[in-house]
Amino acid sequence: MTVSRLGAGRYTDLLDEPEGVETTVHRLTTSDDATVTGVLRVPAGARTVVTLMHPRQDVTHHASVPYLLRDGYAVWTQGSRSPNNDLNLLHEQAIVDFAAGHVRLRDLGFDQVVCLGHSGGATLAAFYCQQAGAAERLTTTPAGRPVPLADTEMPLPDGCIFMAPHPGQGALLLRVIDPSVADESDPLSVDPDLDPFAAANGFVEAPESTTYDAAFVAGYREAQATRIARIDARAREWVAESRAAKKHDDRRRAIAPRVLTTYRTDADLRNVDLSLDPNERPYGSLFGRRPDLTNYGLVGFGRLATAEAWLSTWSANTTNADLARCAPGVTVPSLLLELTGDQASFPADIARFRAALGADDVTVASVPGTHFGGPIAKGAPTGTELAAHVIDEWISRR
Predict the structure, then answer these.
(1) Is 299 helix (H, G, I), strand (E, B) or coil?
(2) Domain residue limits, the chain
(3) What is the pLDDT of residue 11?
(4) What is 3-168+321-396's CATH number, 3.30.2040.10, 2.60.120.10, 3.40.30.10, 3.40.50.1820?
(5) pLDDT tens string 62-104
(6) Sign of torsion over alpha carbons 131, 136, 140, 144
(7) Contact call for residues 53 and 98 (beta carbons, < 8 A)
């Protein structure tokens, strides 16, 4: 476990796409006149299309794509209006983008449209299904920006696959944010009593698993919630100031961007204490093998966000995109697919999601693998490959 490759293992090797696949790029206009892009790959004779979309990542070359094509399914990979960018990611707009892709696929005449939501894409798919089937859809974001969901055509998919589903961006950030940050303007500020990587609090150097005291864990999690609430307060203050400026026709002040910088968001205790919510995960986080170092680096969730994006996406207290809360609105047949070495979704999460899903037809399955579909051990099949077999079997039964 060397320092030179902190992020090693995050990405898996891609299988080559099969021959004879027709690929087309589609420019879509959403119901609120944004432009997004979808890439459609169609093997000869495919009548079922599997969609992939993530609220903030480009999934054009998702590792599942070649496996789905190999198994004879068309694949639609959808972009949002905020690709690879947390800065102004509003989940209420992202599902408007998602809707445009579903409308196009229905227009193209596929017999069956199946959503595959991986990681944060799972919550996006659940949020989409909840709003698509709602009698009264949301009219604004948590910050009050109007969104045209009521006037958006939102076809329901024929089924949903939730692969390595974490609880949603806001709920996930609540788990991983470092509450020992004493000064939001200083990335190195530390409250020593809450420092997760201090020996005085139980931390031991990698690769040995730490064992935290239960009292420290409880206090740490309470402090995580306190830090989120502190950032919420600043976000609400900025939104209120912008609204006041708009009311007084001070347009420059109303649109002037102020960006929340949230330091140190790779500090989930479970990543270094493998006895907490145990599964088959390796030591380390989603971002690398040494959370005690990557926590201080550039990578991490919600690093830069407008106040609106924070309230819509990153605050567990205000976001509408929470998988457990959206799950009762998912009524289409569903596959809940656990990766047994997941570093962001744990067995208790899978049980909670299963209990919450509103569908009558729910299948729960698990395969060995890490969150991004890597192998559980060196030389083992990848989680992506093993998941593909389960997905093919599940779709074939539809």
Answers:
(1) coil
(2) 3-168+321-396, 172-313
(3) 57
(4) 3.40.50.1820
(5) 999 999 999 999 999 999 998 777 789 999 999 999 999 999 9
(6) negative
(7) yes
